[in-house]
């Protein structure tokens, strides 16, 4: 017996509400789910400009992707966390993201941070498999991440440093003017790996080349590189190979330009935001960059994205093609898995072949390393052959000198992948 009888109008409202609730529980959702992706990067301090530019370009890719999504596709949302370039701070940011229910994370600024994230993700997946997170690595290059420290939860959408050195030393086989090399790198895992790989690959492909000097510098610490440039000049080097990035590369070029050092620089980051402004006419035909794409490469689809981005952001260039790979392949994996659950998506992502603007790319199943073309760009004046677009509004840009198919740079792997039960 109802001790509190309802009036007729109230009974009607309750019936309507009850019926609506039943509909919600039985009918499929019409609105696409939103998948939040934690962006853990250097967003403060000396290298903040690089991290902020990367964040902005990632959001542009996501905006375009969301606009082209199907009704059944998830919508992506980027949530930034300042990892400050520190493994400890970045691991703390990862925990904060997990506490907020975020199950996807992307990062690329620093392999030391990447190793810390992989370690934390592995522990979380073992301890709380229902809260496992997928790490989308857009540019941390240490080969250990896809070798002895490989993880089911980690996917790299960018060539490793060894893959890039493979391409570079193949190119140097046809450069007899390169005879004396100075190795100059930041003193952390990535810089040490580039140094080691450079020695090994040059010994194999160009045994006539002399390594005339080597320096490691503490990352984001040195403000005056003039003493290092003087040392390079005194060594008699005709070529520098450097993995420096951020302000460490900008200031290195400034010191070299001020000194008037007229030698070759082969880099992995000379097209990073802020770096081209330090080169100008000094860097013409001297500074080169290894990259996964360049704005003057013959890739119409990515060129269209870069031009559209430049129109919206006149003071910035779109350079993070790896964000395009990452987000598009993630969406494709979710379509294949018919789920946003991380384990199902990870299984769909590994082994994936994807038709990208640069051609067919593969997320290699054995180690979760993406295999894709690699480009070498050479600094040249805008309007000269092959230079349609400049960089940082300098009037100079990178001519697409060489493109290597993925099989040229692909490296063997020692990865022994530990996979969760399907």
In short:
The chain is α/β, with parallel strands linked by helices. Helices cover about 40% and strands about 20% of the residues. The chain folds into two domains: about 35-160 and about 315-370, Response regulator (Rossmann fold, 3-Layer(aba) Sandwich), CATH 3.40.50; about 160-295 and about 375-410, Rossmann fold.
Q: CATH homologous superfamily of the largest domain - what is it?
A: Response regulator
Structural class: alpha/beta
Q: State the CATH class of the largest domain.
A: Alpha Beta
Q: How would a textbook summarize the main sheet?
A: 7 strands, mixed
Strand order of the largest sheet: 7-6-8-9-10-14-15
End-to-end separation in angstroms reads 52 Å
Number of domains: 2
What is the helix fraction of residues, given as a range? 25-40%
The Rg value, from CA coordinates, equals 24 Å
Along the chain, the helix and strand elements come as HEHEHEHEEHEHEHEHEEHHHEEEEEH
Which architecture of the largest domain per CATH?
3-Layer(aba) Sandwich
Average pLDDT, to the nearest integer?
A: 92
What shape does the CA trace take? Answer: globular
Q: State the CATH topology of the largest domain.
A: Rossmann fold
Task: Please indicate the percent range of residues in DSSP E strands (runs of 2 or more).
Answer: 15-25%
Number of strands: 15
Unreliable sequence segments:
1-30
In DSSP terms, counting alpha (H) and pi (I) runs of 4 or more, how many helices? 12
């Amino acid at each position: 017996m109802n001790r509190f009888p309802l009036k007729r109008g109230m009974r009607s409202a309750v019936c309507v509400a009850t019926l609506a609730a039943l509909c919600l529980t039985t009918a499929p959702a019409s609105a696409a789910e939103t998948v939040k992706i934690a962006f853990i990067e250097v967003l403060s301090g000396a290298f903040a400009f690089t991290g902020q530019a990367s964040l902005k370009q990632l959001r542009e890719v996501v905006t375009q992707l969301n606009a082209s999504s199907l009704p059944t596709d998830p919508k992506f949302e980027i949530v930034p966390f300042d990892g400050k370039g520190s493994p400890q701070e970045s691991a703390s940011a990862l925990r904060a993201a997990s506490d907020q229910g975020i199950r996807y994370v992307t990062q690329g600024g620093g392999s030391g941070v990447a190793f810390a994230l992989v370690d934390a993700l592995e522990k979380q997946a073992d301890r709380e498999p229902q809260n496992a997170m997928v790490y989308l690595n857009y540019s941390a290059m240490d080969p250990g991440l896809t070798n002895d420290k490989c993880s089911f939860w980690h996917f790299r959408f960018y060539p490793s440093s060894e893959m890039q050195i493979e391409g570079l030393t193949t190119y140097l086989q046809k450069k007899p003017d390169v005879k004396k090399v100075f190795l100059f790198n930041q003193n952390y895992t990535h810089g040490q790996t580039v140094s080691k790989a450079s020695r090994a690959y040059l010994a194999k492909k160009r045994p006539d080349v002399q390594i005339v000097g080597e320096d490691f510098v503490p990352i984001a610490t040195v403000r005056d590189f003039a003493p290092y440039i003087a040392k390079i000049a005194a060594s008699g080097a005709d070529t520098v190979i450097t993995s420096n990035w951020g302000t460490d590369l900008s200031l290195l070029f400034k010191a070299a330009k001020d000194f008037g050092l007229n030698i070759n620089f082969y880099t992995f980051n000379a097209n990073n935001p802020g770096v081209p402004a330090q080169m100008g006419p000094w860097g013409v035909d001297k500074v080169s960059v290894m990259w996964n794409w360049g704005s003057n490469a013959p890739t119409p689809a990515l060129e269209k994205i870069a031009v559209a981005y430049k129109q919206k952001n006149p003071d910035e260039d779109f350079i993070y093609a790896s964000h395009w790979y990452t987000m598009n392949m993630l969406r494709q994996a979710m379509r294949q898995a018919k789920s946003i659950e991380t384990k199902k998506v990870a299984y769909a992502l590994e082994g994936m072949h994807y038709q990208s603007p640069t051609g067919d790319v593969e997320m290699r199943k054995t180690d979760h390393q993406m295999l894709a073309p690699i480009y070498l760009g050479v600094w040249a004046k805008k309007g000269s052959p092959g230079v349609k677009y400049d960089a940082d509004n300098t009037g100079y840009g990178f001519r697409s000198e060489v493109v290597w198919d993925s099989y040229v740079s692909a490296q063997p792997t020692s990865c022994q992948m530990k996979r969760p039960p399907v």
